[in-house]
UniProtKB/TrEMBL annotation:
This is LPS glycosyltransferase. It comes from Penicillium coprophilum. One of its GO terms (molecular function) is transferase activity. Residues 310-331 are annotated as: Disordered. Belongs to the glycosyltransferase 25 family. InterPro entries: Collagen_mod_GT25, Glyco_trans_25. The keyword Transferase applies.
Amino acid sequence: MAFSASQLRFVQLLLVVFVVVFILLQLRPSAHKATGPTQEVWSDHEWDNFDDIRNETLGVEKVFAINLASRPDKRDNIVLGSSLSNFHVEWIDGVTPDEINSKSYPYNWNHDHKQTEYAARRAHVNGLQRIVQERLASAIIMEDDTDWDVSIKVQLQSFAHAVRALQLKDTQKVPTQSPYGDDWDILWIGHCGVSCKTDLPFYLTPNDPTIPMPHHFRPLWRDSPIFKGYERPDHSRLVCTASDAICSMFYAVSYRGAQRILAALSVNPSGLAEDIDIGAQFDVSLGRMCGKGYLRCFAPFPSITGGFRQAGPKAKTSDINDETGEQGGFSSSGVMYSTMLNINRILKGERTVHATWDDVDVLDVVPGDITMAQGAIFGISR
């Protein structure tokens, strides 16, 4: 059957409309199949408060560091390093065993642990108490031997993209309290091992230039997270809902989270401590709360922050463990472009900073040139 000229024009118009609609659907971010688990490209262009992370408190209300009065050398490190990274630190006094009245120990504390371990736990609890008392919506608590990358604010912005995406439910909502989202208790940013809830989605950011190769990771006390059907590429950073972690060297805590941890570790309402706290060191108990679902916790892998060791005897390193022998020179662990090791370069106004190790792809980099790629959610459909 022959078509008239007007019919042919109508058919051609329908084909053009079909092609345009098809192209638009392909460009729109949507769930699609990928190798391994389901991948979902996530866009948050309507959320505009990521720049809050570039402020003097890294996107939370306050940044605290725990430090013993007897270790002003470690305080010097944090004060100088944070000033060069343009964020401000307030102090929480460390605690020594002789300052603790035996009456203040929780009834379920395991006295097989060292007294110094309880003293360290008490210092963290004092920090949580301060967050609750001052009604802070969120805060960061770090330990005084922490080191961080010169690009920490860029790293935390990328991390915020990930944790926001993992907090989404049915609709995208602009966070009202924090650039990291509103539904979290702990952001375990610095650790020495993490376990993930593998039945929940995870977020992967590819080609992160600040990730060390695995042989340069801090000594890990947990196996690397494994999701069925997917293996993390070496230069990709994974962010997951954490079921456990170890080492409390750098973490963010929300007001709700601080209240809940204070309740579990010190106030101990009936039945609470027995279920989620085993009278252990602070990080061990915190990890248990994440695994039990008492806290909603998110963590990157590998860790974003690392550790710094000064030159000299090993005894200078830890205020909990009695270490002996010589440490050697200054060293950083877990951080590609260490702030502490680049202090002299930064103070001299040099344009570039140097990598922590010599076997990396880019030895010298301009801090402002460090950028992060857009990531994606992987895992089960939500």
